[in-house]
Amino acid sequence: xxxxxxxxKLPYSKSFLFVDEILQIxxxxxxxxxxxxxxxxxxxGHFKEFPVTPGVILIEVMAQIGLVCLGIFLxxxxxxSSTSIALTSSEIEFLKPVFPNEKVIVISEKIYFRFxxxxxxxxxxxxxxxxxxxxxxxxxxLTPTLSKEVGLKTxxx
Length: 157
Prior knowledge:
The chain has helices at residues 3-9, 55-75, 144-150, and strands spanning 21-26, 29-35, 84-94, 103-114, 117-126, 131-142. The protein has 157 residues and is of the alpha+beta class.
């Protein structure tokens, strides 16, 4: 599967799509980038005089690149519009702030992928190569076939 196809399959639209480019991807991990446009809505209030990217958004960027893109790649043709994706856990240490117009690189290394659960070690770096945040992130990626195997529904309500 091509890198552009993976991005096209992401279940997010422009206001909540935090993947600009996949630099590298294989069965063991993924590396991708995102640039935080200064016009993103959350900068208006976080913080009024000194905008900083919220930690929850940094986790979302790490999840979209490091977990969801890799999951789509690993599932390949079994990934479809009926596939459900849910973050199950994250343990992230924040080391540096990310400001408007900064570009970050997310590097994700698969720890395991079994029974529909993908767990990865993730690092986010700024353009200077400094670690912004590091940790682990995990999620469930359920296809209709896999959900029958583990006894789970794939409907999100």
